[in-house]
């Protein structure tokens, strides 16, 4: 039987290093993915993942099991992400846009979705990413963003509709170009057949 995250956190609070190692093993990948999808560069995502766990270690004495450990970890991650974005904004030259997450190794569909996500408002994008990528429940998102659950539901619905609106023109364009490519091939084949 798997020990709950909350039980592990309480064990860690009492000094159990294996309990922390289990929490680290469970959440290192998901937290890295959280940062990687929002920042430019693997190394910075790795650094912030480690900083999240350092913050857990430093605050372990003050931890109270009022919320799920997962929510606790993502709230630390969101605070670190906000600080990182402020730092990037402060350090970037005026008029220079913030760098987008790296996409050079992404397949076309993933790149297409990532570009559509970038067109969403920050709050819409964050709610959608927390739900779809981080797989957080409505209640966990509500707690992280300090919103009522029904507000999370309605914003998630709006963000999905907005994302769909951004994706539709691209899909239609891709289908049209594929259709015209097939039509050109048919015309070419007919012309070759008539020439023979």
The total strand number stands at 0
Shape: globular
Distance between the termini: 73 Å
Tally of structural domains: 2
Mean pLDDT: 82
Spell out the helices and strands N to C. Answer: HHHHHHHH
Helicity range = over 70%
At the third CATH level, what is the topology name of the largest domain? Rna Polymerase Sigma Factor, Chain: A
Q: Major beta sheet, specifics?
A: none
CATH class of the largest domain: Mainly Alpha
* Poorly predicted regions: 97-104
Pairing-aware structural class of the strands and helices? mainly alpha
CATH architecture of the largest domain, by name, is: Orthogonal Bundle
User: What value does the Rg take, in angstroms?
Assistant: 23 Å
β-strand percent reads under 5%
Structure description:
The protein has 196 residues and is an all-alpha fold. It folds into two domains: 1-102, RNA polymerase sigma factor, region 2, helix turn helix motif (Rna Polymerase Sigma Factor, Chain: A, Orthogonal Bundle), CATH 1.10.1740.10; 107-196, Winged helix-like DNA-binding domain superfamily/Winged helix DNA-binding domain (Arc Repressor Mutant, subunit A, Orthogonal Bundle). The protein contains eight helices and no strands. The longest helix is centred in the last third of the chain and has 47 residues, at 149-195. Residues 97-104 have low confidence and may be disordered.
């Amino acid at each position: 039987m798997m020990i709950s995250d909350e039980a592990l956190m309480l064990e860690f609070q009492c000094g159990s290093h294996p309990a922390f190692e289990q929490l680290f093993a469970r959440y290192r990948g998901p937290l890295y993915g959280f940062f990687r999808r929002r920042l430019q560069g693997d190394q910075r995502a790795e650094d912030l993942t480690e900083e999240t766990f350092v913050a857990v270690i430093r605050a372990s004495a003050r931890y109270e099991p009022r919320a799920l450990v997962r929510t606790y970890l993502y709230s630390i991650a969101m605070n670190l992400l906000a600080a990182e974005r402020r730092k990037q904004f402060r350090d970037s030259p005026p008029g220079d846009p913030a760098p987008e997450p790296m996409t050079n190794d992404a397949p076309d569909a993933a790149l297409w979705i990532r570009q559509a996500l970038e067109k969403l408002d920050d709050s819409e994008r964050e709610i959608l990413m927390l739900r779809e990528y981080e797989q957080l429940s409505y209640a966990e998102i509500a707690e992280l963003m300090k919103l009522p659950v029904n507000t999370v539901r309605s914003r998630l619905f709006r963000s999905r509709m907005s994302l769909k609106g951004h994706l539709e023109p691209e899909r239609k364009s891709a289908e049209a170009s594929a259709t015209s490519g097939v039509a050109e091939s048919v015309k070419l084949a007919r012309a070759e057949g008539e020439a023979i």
